């Protein structure tokens, strides 16, 4: 799957990923009203509304982008109906040829991680049959429990030819509370980066490992250090746009070949119609606003090369 991700990035000339993080208040009134007319103001109604919202955005942007990153929390808040919309979104994006990065941030003791890995990336055995549960192409993994919490994901990736992005340095303001602490004279995120690089050594695609990492766009100096430390590791870069990360900060996240990183924007794309810059589209044409926001993001990121 890392080879598909890289080849789609090259084909579309777009090292970007659209984050499908649908809050109900981003969903235009006309979509909410239709969903509530069918299902009432219920969890089912909300889940239908976010699914229709996602579908319209995917239809308007899929030809421009290599990948999407649905954030599972946004679906889980609507309980089981929300998770059904998460799954519908994954399946639809795959039908459209997109690589799907499930932002699930899982990681636990080994046996529990194994179940997460099977549920999201692998297949679960039921008697003589096996079933893919959510079936994302990549998942994000929290490495805080150490190797035995991460290895089950890698094992499933090997079997299924999928991939993971392991949190190394996150984009949020307080990420330094733990991640920047010095351990043996070096910041913890560097040690985690080295581990990720090591885990990825025997997980190589053509040019990059399918064990990738997450480094926030909001910490460019650290991105530069980590890029050098882990040259074969693909970096998923959240924090562009709504969190303040800018294109000019992002060059050091890429290798000389212009590859090695993929930049996420969620609110900046899916809620573009709410921004002044895209107000000409109006709420009815929210998906066209998202398309223009994708084009602008792509040009912005490509301007650094
Ligand atoms: O370090 C991290 C890891 C993950 N995220 C996730 O990415 C998106 C960002 O959304 P924006 O609207 O573009 O800010 C969201 O799903 C986060 O959970 C992150 O921001 N930082």
Automatic annotation (TrEMBL):
Gene Ontology terms for molecular function: orotidine-5'-phosphate decarboxylase activity
Keyword terms: Decarboxylase, Lyase, Pyrimidine biosynthesis
EC number: 4.1.1.23
Coiled coil: none
Sequence ranges assigned to domain Orotidine 5'-phosphate decarboxylase in this UniProt record: 15-281
HAMAP family linked to this entry: OMPdecase_type2
Family label: Belongs to the OMP decarboxylase family. Type 2 subfamily.
Protein name (record): Orotidine 5'-phosphate decarboxylase
Gene source species: Butyribacter intestini
């Amino acid at each position: 799957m890392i080879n598909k991700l890289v080849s789609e990035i090259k084909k579309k000339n777009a090292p970007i990923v659209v984050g499908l993080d649908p809050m109900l208040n981003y969903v235009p009134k006309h979509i909410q009203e239709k969903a509530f007319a069918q299902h009432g103001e219920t969890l089912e109604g909300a889940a239908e509304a976010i699914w229709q919202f996602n579908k319209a955005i995917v239809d308007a942007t899929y030809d421009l982008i290599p990948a999407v990153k649905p954030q599972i929390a946004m679906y889980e808040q609507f309980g089981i109906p929300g998770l059904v919309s998460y799954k519908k979104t994954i399946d639809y994006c795959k039908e459209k040829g997109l690589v799907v990065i499930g932002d699930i941030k899982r990681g636990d003791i080994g046996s529990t991680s194994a179940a997460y890995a099977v549920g999201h990336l692998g297949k679960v055995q039921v008697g003589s049959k096996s079933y893919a549960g959510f079936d994302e192409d990549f998942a994000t993994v929290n490495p805080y429990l150490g190797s035995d919490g991460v290895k089950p994901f890698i094992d499933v990736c090997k079997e299924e030819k999928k991939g993971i992005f392991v949190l190394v340095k996150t984009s949020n303001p307080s990420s330094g509370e733990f991640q920047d602490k010095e351990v043996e004279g070096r910041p913890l995120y560097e040690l985690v980066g080295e581990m990720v690089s090591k885990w990825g050594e025997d997980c190589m695609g053509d040019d990059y490992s399918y064990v990738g990492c997450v480094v926030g766009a909001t910490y460019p100096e650290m991105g530069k250090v980590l890029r050098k430390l882990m040259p074969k590791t693909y970096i998923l870069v959240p924090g562009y746009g709504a969190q303040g990360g800018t294109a000019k900060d992002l060059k050091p996240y890429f290798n000389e070949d212009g590859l090695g990183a993929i930049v996420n924007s969620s609110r900046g794309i899916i809620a573009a119609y709410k921004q002044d810059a895209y107000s000409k589209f109006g709420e009815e044409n929210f998906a066209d606003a998202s398309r223009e926001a994708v084009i602008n993001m792509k040009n912005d990121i490509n301007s650094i090369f």
